Amino acid sequence: MSELLTKSVTNVTPKDLAEKKLKAGKPLKVYLGIDPTGSRLHVGHAVPLRKIKAFADEGHEVIFLIGSFTAMIGDPTDRDSMREVLTKEQIEENFKTYKEQASKVLDFSKIKIVYNHEWLEKLNFTDVVKLASNFTVQQMLERDMFENRMKDGKPIYMHEFFYPLMQGYDSVELDVDCEIGGNDQYFNMLAGRTLQSAMGKKEKFVVTTKLIEGTDGRKMSKTYNNCIYLDDEPNDMFGKVMRINDDLMETYFECCTDVSASEVKTILSGEPRAAKIQLAREIVTLYHSADAADAAEKYYNEAAAGDVPSDAPEVKAKKGTLLIDFLVEQNLVKSKSEARRLIEQGGIKMGDTVIDSLDTVVAEGEYKIGKRKFIKITI
Fold first, then answer.
1. pLDDT for residue 81 is more than 60
2. Measured between alpha carbons, how far is residue 338 from residues 228, 231, 324, 334 in Å?
3. 32 burial level (CB within 10 Å; 0-12, 13-18, 19+)
4. Cα dist. 183→160, 215, 254 in Å?
5. Nearest CA to 125 among 165, 175, 180?
6. Can you give the pLDDT at residue 128?
7. Is the pLDDT of residue 79 over 90?
8. Where do the domains of the chain lie, and which CATH numbers do they carry?
9. Which of 99, 163, 228, 277 is deepest in the core (most CB within 10 A)?
């Protein structure tokens, strides 16, 4: 059973069923469902991915479900307003790089991929009414996000009640022993238990994994711009990990690395900065390599000392180009508005000189952009 029911886990329901099924020694059918509502995965997304990897590594049958139908409806979980409805084309576009990123965690030769539009779009109105008869409006309204919307006078749309029915029906169709998901998916996963029981299928247990906070201490979300993405460059990834709050290190070690609990205890008993450097190294090594972690640590230390890192990229610029335009072209900032804000806040330097004009033209020199981005420009 190892750490399948403990590491990075917040809840196992019902626990006695989970322990019984695992002790029986037979391969279990386990699944994780994802809605490709975005195109990038972060280390928070990787927590349940790492959990299904652990099940696959121990010989269980693991299914990776793509919410090709449910993503078009939109999961209301943790939302204070209706989620944007996506088209099939948007979902397909989002999924293009999703598998590539997930492959940084999962060995897809051991995992089956399925798409829930294959059965959900075949349900007729009678089928949907039968599914809905297993739940009450009171159950739905007890969900925090709906309670909060009612309190704030915000609308709750009828179709949002159907989301847990659809996710629950995935469990019926797949007839699984276990569903894995983030702690925010607990209600939806329990809906699957209800429907499996009502429709004479297996009794499943659910495993909820921990949610981790981002670089600013809030829930990791692209909305807050606080994500550590799986496809971040090593230097960015290392620097972002170094920005997390010290009190999050234990959770990050547990959920985002393969370091043993006993070793984590020893690491955290030492100096906090050294512990965080070790954490950053572990994460960069997982998603890149040990050599990349070495280089990223060196880059970070040089930047922290105020020096331009020796391996800062050198880029040739066209004479007369506005600095704002150049920074956007080189993906050093996300937009011209971000570049303007940095300049207005004194966040861009050439050597020791603070750039204070929005009309600055690029010149040869070493630039510091924000806290830890450096570039050498030649003309």
1. no
2. 19, 21, 9, 7
3. buried
4. 19, 20, 15
5. 165
6. 94
7. no
8. 9-209 (3.40.50.620), 222-304 (1.10.240.10), 314-378 (3.10.290.10)
9. 228
